[in-house]
Recover the amino acids of this structure.
């Protein structure tokens, strides 16, 4: 099965009438920096693998799992020996569910689970991925429906995991301390989820503080301690992240994207976008035009 590259964009060719692609990749493999709209999950079954994400390099050993979110630019390198699971699926499978829509925009560009770390969710993730291989190989009746249910199970597990929230919050020491306390963890993560689900509303600090059950001033200090930035900065970053994905993956106008990302005007959106990326939304889209069909 071939891949089609236009600039740095990979067009994933799924099997006919399918939204899933499973590859058991063997032997040496090198692929240049690229991205694709779909989600990709990589797990070496034997040997190792290297992933290059900007300036960061990740060494995957047997059993490690790397989640690459939609539109993440990455390069891959595998040795002459070894077998790796490459699982790709259409992002629309998750975006079609309202409950997932806002959460996906807070998903980090990548999530790395190391087998040696022994995190509580790792055995469940590995079990689901091995079931995906089995279903794809045999393709019994309703195998695609089964893959869809496994993807939903997998991402429900991830979104309920403190590990994902730690990466989204920047993995600060304060956040790590917070997540050791289950009651505090659930309360604070529910606030982050509330923020991500309400990016298009006129959300303010007082509303979020009320959601958490804290005073506005205490919540403001707590939020900065745990996340490392202020509440308003966090909301703006989440909105800009959502806008970037929409600029890359849709043909919507800048004005429509501004409103869909939670900005109340194009001028505010342009100013915030420039402050974050040092270019306008239009220039950002033009610069990445080679990545689009």
């Amino acid at each position: 099965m071939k891949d089609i590259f236009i600039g740095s964009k990979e067009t994933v060719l799924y099997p006919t009438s399918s939204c899933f692609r499973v590859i058991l990749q063997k032997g040496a493999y090198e692929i240049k920096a690229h991205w694709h709209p779909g989600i990709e999950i990589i797990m070496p079954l034997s040997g190792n693998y290297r992933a290059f994400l900007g300036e960061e390099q990740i060494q995957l050993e047997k059993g490690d799992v790397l989640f690459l979110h939609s539109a993440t630019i990455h390069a891959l390198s595998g040795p002459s020996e070894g077998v790796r699971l490459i699982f790709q699926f259409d992002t629309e499978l998750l975006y079609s569910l309202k409950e997932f829509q806002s959460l996906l925009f807070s998903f980090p560009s990548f999530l790395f689970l190391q087998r040696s770390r022994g995190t509580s969710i790792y055995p469940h993730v590995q079990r689901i991925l091995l079931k995906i291989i089995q279903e794809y190989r045999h393709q019994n009746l309703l195998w695609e429906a089964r893959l869809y249910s496994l993807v939903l199970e997998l991402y429900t597990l991830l979104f309920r995991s403190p590990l994902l929230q730690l990466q989204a919050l920047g993995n600060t020491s304060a956040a790590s301390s917070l997540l050791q306390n289950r009651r505090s963890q659930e309360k604070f993560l529910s606030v982050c989820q509330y923020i991500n689900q309400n990016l298009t509303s006129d959300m303010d600090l007082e509303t979020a503080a009320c959601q958490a059950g804290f005073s506005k001033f205490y919540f403001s200090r707590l939020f900065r301690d745990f996340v490392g930035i202020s509440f308003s900065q966090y909301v703006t970053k989440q909105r800009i992240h959502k806008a970037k994905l929409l600029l890359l993956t849709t043909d919507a106008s800048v004005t429509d994207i501004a409103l869909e990302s939670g900005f109340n005007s194009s001028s505010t959106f342009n100013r915030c976008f420039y402050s974050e990326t040092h270019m306008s939304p239009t220039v950002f889209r033009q610069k990445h035009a080679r990545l689009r069909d």
In short: The first helix runs from residue 92 to 95.
